Design the sequence.
């Protein structure tokens, strides 16, 4: 989802303010994955960064249509994770997503 999220951020920065809600949703879904991994005991940030780097590299070999389908599936799973989260979890995810969006749009 990282690639599609960065593409959305670039479009919002270029003046497509109508895409901002979609960008925030994508960021929330990504943060839901991070929160879920944390709750399952994954707290090794160096390992997580290495996995992210490997995944981004592997995506380069995936055809665009397949990559788009995979990203949509990941977003849907992120939505399911967010829907299962309690109030506090959703609040934390929302805060993380808003902070990330601010960073993407100001950077």
Sequence:
């Amino acid at each position: 989802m990282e690639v599609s999220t960065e593409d959305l951020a670039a479009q919002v920065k270029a003046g497509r303010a109508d895409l901002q809600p979609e960008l925030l949703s994508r960021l929330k879904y990504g943060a839901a994955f991070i929160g879920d991994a944390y709750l399952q005991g994954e707290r090794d940030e160096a390992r997580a960064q290495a996995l992210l780097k490997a995944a981004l590299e592997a995506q380069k070999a995936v055809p665009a249509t397949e990559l788009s389908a995979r990203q949509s599936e990941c977003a849907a799973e992120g939505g399911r994770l967010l829907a299962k989260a309690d109030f506090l979890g959703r609040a934390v995810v929302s805060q993380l997503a808003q902070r990330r969006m601010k960073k993407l749009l100001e950077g």
